[in-house]
């Protein structure tokens, strides 16, 4: 009996060698060691935990540790990740965000539910919540001054090219209008302190403004996120008619290159260093007194090496007033920005983040942004 089970397990392990089965069917992580023997897919440990939330559809086992029956193995042989992908991801819209193993639990769980439970990518009508070009509803928005979350009505209109929200449910005029061409959205559950927390940024007078929202219903929140991506996609198709689909998809939404605390001093380099929350958003380095502030205290444009931007470890000699020992000097054509990190690891990570931006040649439209920063009052 034991030898039979050994043979069966070897058959299951051999299935992992087949094309498509060497990566998690849901997040793409390498070397999956779990499987859904009712769906016929192999997955990573993390996604197997999310499949347990749809136990009526998906029943999971460890490839290496659990006993398998011959009929279960035969079913796995008959399906596999590639065949399941062809069925469950038949019509995924181009703009729809397909999560990776690096993404938050909410995005990965809703992707799994959308595929197997709601079967959204087998029927276009099921995609209306995020593909209709218009969406409205109530979301909890964090107050700018008191930090309390209050219910606010939000409307997303592709036709108008805006996302807007209203402070009162019966208000005629919106409290704020966010133009789709500058909007970004990124899930930040840890930073915001709520599971389904989404950070939305937009430009107001070319300065970054943050709003923080959430909804208890995970599906609602991910539908809003993908509706924003859809609106951005259709705007960019018109704005950049010569761009390829892959170029447009890179511009829909973006996660920050890096965030965290550093100390900084002022332009004269004589002021005491102050602890600030820094966010590297594409070529904008912003700093905030608090991570959940609506507006940055300052923004710095980080250009490319060809345009005389560099980053150096350490601080210039004779600089005083810092508490953290691991300095960073950011050199721009106009001045030097001095920061200090708490640990050597933080310093290395920040320098690596700056290098990725500095080593990337500037795009034509980025020169206009740089010019604005140079002439900013």
UniProtKB/TrEMBL annotation:
<feature type="domain" description="PH">
    <location>
        <begin position="255"/>
        <end position="359"/>
    </location>
</feature>
<dbReference type="InterPro" id="IPR011993">
    <property type="entry name" value="PH-like_dom_sf"/>
</dbReference>
<dbReference type="InterPro" id="IPR037278">
    <property type="entry name" value="ARFGAP/RecO"/>
</dbReference>
<keyword id="KW-0479">Metal-binding</keyword>
<keyword id="KW-0343">GTPase activation</keyword>
<dbReference type="GO" id="GO:0008270">
    <property type="term" value="F:zinc ion binding"/>
</dbReference>
<dbReference type="GO" id="GO:0005737">
    <property type="term" value="C:cytoplasm"/>
</dbReference>
<dbReference type="InterPro" id="IPR052589">
    <property type="entry name" value="Arf-GAP_dual-PH_domain"/>
</dbReference>
<dbReference type="InterPro" id="IPR037849">
    <property type="entry name" value="PH1_ADAP"/>
</dbReference>
<dbReference type="InterPro" id="IPR038508">
    <property type="entry name" value="ArfGAP_dom_sf"/>
</dbReference>
<dbReference type="GO" id="GO:1902936">
    <property type="term" value="F:phosphatidylinositol bisphosphate binding"/>
</dbReference>
<keyword id="KW-0862">Zinc</keyword>
<feature type="domain" description="Arf-GAP">
    <location>
        <begin position="9"/>
        <end position="131"/>
    </location>
</feature>
<dbReference type="InterPro" id="IPR001849">
    <property type="entry name" value="PH_domain"/>
</dbReference>
<keyword id="KW-0863">Zinc-finger</keyword>
<dbReference type="InterPro" id="IPR001164">
    <property type="entry name" value="ArfGAP_dom"/>
</dbReference>
<keyword id="KW-0677">Repeat</keyword>
<dbReference type="GO" id="GO:0005096">
    <property type="term" value="F:GTPase activator activity"/>
</dbReference>
<dbReference type="Pfam" id="PF01412">
    <property type="entry name" value="ArfGap"/>
</dbReference>
<dbReference type="GO" id="GO:0005547">
    <property type="term" value="F:phosphatidylinositol-3,4,5-trisphosphate binding"/>
</dbReference>
<dbReference type="Pfam" id="PF00169">
    <property type="entry name" value="PH"/>
</dbReference>
<feature type="domain" description="PH">
    <location>
        <begin position="132"/>
        <end position="233"/>
    </location>
</feature>
<dbReference type="GO" id="GO:0005886">
    <property type="term" value="C:plasma membrane"/>
</dbReference>
<protein>
    <recommendedName>
        <fullName>Arf-GAP with dual PH domain-containing protein 1-like</fullName>
    </recommendedName>
</protein>
<keyword id="KW-0963">Cytoplasm</keyword>
<dbReference type="InterPro" id="IPR037851">
    <property type="entry name" value="PH2_ADAP"/>
</dbReference>
């Amino acid at each position: 009996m034991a030898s039979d089970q050994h043979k069966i397990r070897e058959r299951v392990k051999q299935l992992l060698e087949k094309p498509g089965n060497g990566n998690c069917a849901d997040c793409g992580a390498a070397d999956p060691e779990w499987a859904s023997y009712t769906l016929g897919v192999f997955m990573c440990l993390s996604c197997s935990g999310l499949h347990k939330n749809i136990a009526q559809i998906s029943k999971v086992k460890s490839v290496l540790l659990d006993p398998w029956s011959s009929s279960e193995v035969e079913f796995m042989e008959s399906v596999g990740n590639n065949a399941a992908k062809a069925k469950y991801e038949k019509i995924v819209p181009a703009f729809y965000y397909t999560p990776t193993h690096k993404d938050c639990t909410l995005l990965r769980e809703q992707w799994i539910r959308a595929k197997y439970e709601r079967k959204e990518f087998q029927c276009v009508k099921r995609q209306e919540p995020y593909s209709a070009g218009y969406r409205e509803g109530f979301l909890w928005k964090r107050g700018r001054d008191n930090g309390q979350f209050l219910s606010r009505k939000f409307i997303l209109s592709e036709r108008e090219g805006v996302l807007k929200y209203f402070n009162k449910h019966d208000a005629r005029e919106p409290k704020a209008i966010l133009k789709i061409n500058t909007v970004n959205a990124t899930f930040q559950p840890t930073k915001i302190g709520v599971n389904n927390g989404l950070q939305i940024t937009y430009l107001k007078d070319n300065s970054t403004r943050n709003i923080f929202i959430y909804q208890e219903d995970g599906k609602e929140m991910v539908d809003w996120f993908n509706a924003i991506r859809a609106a951005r996609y259709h705007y960019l198709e018109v704005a950049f008619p010569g761009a390829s689909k892959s170029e447009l998809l890179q511009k829909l939404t973006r996660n920050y290159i890096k965030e965290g605390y550093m100390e900084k001093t002022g332009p004269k380099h004589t002021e005491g260093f102050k602890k600030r929350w820094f966010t590297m958003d594409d070529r904008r380095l912003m700093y905030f007194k608090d991570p959940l502030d609506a507006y940055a205290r300052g923004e710095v444009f980080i250009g490319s090496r060809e345009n005389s931007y560099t980053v150096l470890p350490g601080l210039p000699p004779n600089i005083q007033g810092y508490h953290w020992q691991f300095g960073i000097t950011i050199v721009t054509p106009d001045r030097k920005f001095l920061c200090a990190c708490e640990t050597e690891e933080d310093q290395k990570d920040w320098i690596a983040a700056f290098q990725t931006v500095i080593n990337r040649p500037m795009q034509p439209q980025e020169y206009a942004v740089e010019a604005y920063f140079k002439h900013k009052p």
